[in-house]
Amino acid sequence: MEYGLQSAGPALRIISLIFLLVFAALIIAVAVGLAALPGQIAKRRQHPFSDAVNIAGWLGLPTGIVWVLAMVWAHMSPKPNESSGHATTESAQLAAQVQQLESLVDALEQTSSGNQS
Q1: What letter does residue 81 receive in the DSSP assignment?
Q2: C-alpha 77: how far from its chain's center?
Q3: What 3-state DSSP class applies to 58?
Q4: Contact 66/76 with Cβ under 8 angstroms?
Q5: TM spans, by residue (predicted)?
Q6: What is the pLDDT along the chain (117 residues), one digit of tens a residue?
Q7: Do the domain assignments include residue 4?
Q8: CA 100 to CA 77: how far, in whole Å?
Q9: Which of 8, 24, 59, 61 fits a 20 to 30 Å CA distance from 74?
Q10: Could you tell me if 63 and 103 lie in one domain?
């Protein structure tokens, strides 16, 4: 019993080996890309904990659950009090408003004490 492509056997083995190696390299490249994705997103969004998000992405890829949490964390925006520039300007504005209100209250107290005498 002979096979029709028996003479092509060695060539088919080499071609199938090349396909398997390319497929394995493609799988590794996709895994590396997925593991690095949360960290890249966090750095692009200037997340304050971008390094931690990157580590969570790499460590979470085998489990899947931590990787999903890293993706969510990468897309979360920081609270306003965590960004120092915004918080200091806001607190300075509030302090100025408090001083203005205190001066208005003092002026009202002086006018009301002047009317009572």
Answers
A1: G
A2: 8
A3: helix
A4: no
A5: 12-35, 55-74
A6: 566 666 677 788 889 899 999 999 999 999 999 999 999 999 998 888 889 999 999 999 888 889 999 999 999 876 655 555 556 788 888 999 999 999 999 998 888 887 765
A7: no
A8: 33
A9: 24
A10: no
Which amino acid would we find at residue 14?
I
2 in any annotated domain: no
* Pairwise CA distance, residues 112 & 51, whole Å: 60
Half-sphere exposure of 66 (CA within 13 A, CB side): 14
- Residue 69's nearest CA partner among 55, 81, 83 is 55
Total domains present in the chain: 2
> What pLDDT score does 51 carry?
92
Verdict on whether the full-model pTM lies above 0.70? no
H/E segment holding residue 4:
none
Q: What is the pLDDT of residue 115?
A: 73
Structural domain harbouring 54 = 9-78
Is 96 inside a domain boundary?
A: yes
Q: Give yes or no: residues 65 and 88 share one domain.
A: no
| DSSP class of 83 | S
Quick one: how far is CA 22 from the chain centroid? 31
